[in-house]
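Sanity check. The docking grid for zinc ion depends on where the pocket ends up, so I'm generating a full predicted complex first rather than guessing from homology. Inputs follow.
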Amino acid sequence: MNIYLVAVLAILLASYLLDLVADLMNLRHISPGLPDEFKDVYDPLKYRESQDYLRENTKHSLVTDGLMTAITIGFILSGGFNSVDRFARSFNLGQIPTGLIFAGGLICLSRLCHIPFDAYHTFIIEGKFGFNRTTPGTFIMDIVKKWLLGALLGGILFSAVIGIFREAGPLAWLYCWGVVALFQLGVIFIAPAAIMPIFNKFTPLEDGELKTAIEDYAGSQGFKMKGIFRMDASRRSSKSNAFFTGFGKLRRIVLFDTLIQKHTLDELVSVLAHEMGHYRKKHVLTSALIMVMTTGLMFLILSLFINNRGLFEAFKMRDVSIYASIFFFGFLFIPIQTMLSIFSNLLSRRHEYEADAYAALTYGKPGAMISALKKLSVDSLSNLAPHPFKVFLDYSHPPVLQRIVALKKMAAI
Ligand SMILES: [Zn+2]
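Predicted complex below; grid placement will be based on this.
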């Protein structure tokens, strides 16, 4: 048996098993007792609901991932990649258009398989727990918009990468790194003005107590920004959030309309102070740097596998090509990606504590930060007691109880 085929199958199965083990441990870790800290915001019935929500979501993702892994393995073993390649080549176009048809065909197939699972999640699970506000019309329009945007941006990038690997010789990976990194940073730069408005409406926050309080706080921290916006998140879900987008003077503060509805002024400013903390402590810059370094590492390793005969035989391909090399390499990169994501989650959890501390110190109201965190986690029925292994693997934020403990320690100082 081909060694690459063994490696790819082992990687797919191991990566599913890892998630399965973490999820099962997480489910067994559910504790029936409501933590003292949450007695004022949860009643036992609502707390039980949060555990049912965890069970249903876990079951859904295990079934989805299990079936998708099985479909992928079936597709590899039955020579599905070669069939798509024969189809793409039947148009007798150049390498780049053929590559675009090949990639487009595979991505469409995979997305089509995901639609029923996504619909079940949005309408059945989120609906059952009262979160869903997405209409079937919005659901379909979102898919159409995401596909068009993905085809446009992905198409440009994929063409560039194929072209560079075809022309640039041994240093191609370095040029690809430069081009893709610039593209990634460019997307972050233009997203607030050009991409996000495709999906949501952003209206400047009206004058009033809240706007003044946010501006006063931002001013006291010397924080420059373009404006404060309200986003119509309630079109899709009742869950709430806030975030910053853009760089430097172009930065915008975005508040979900659902967040504004449910929180007090002090809680809202605390949430924004936390977000500002991420900028002030250079977390945003660090994450961007890590993203750029990861891209470089990926292209360096990819360059070692371009047109690798053995890898193409594993996928039952008749002809080698740069475009298919990129896809097949993606499977080999999964373990490295898992390790990188564990590392970036670890860093991100540290950053969350630092941003919480920044908010508590600079705004001076740790109590408001704590009550905002409590409201947010009740509001989204988040798991109060995740298993440490699940946290280690998947959590970009520390469990809420640990954040509250850290904030209380600060308040006591
Ligand atoms: Zn944060």
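Relevant for the grid: Residues 20 and 62 are 7 Å apart (CA to CA).
Also worth noting: The first helix runs from residue 3 to 28.
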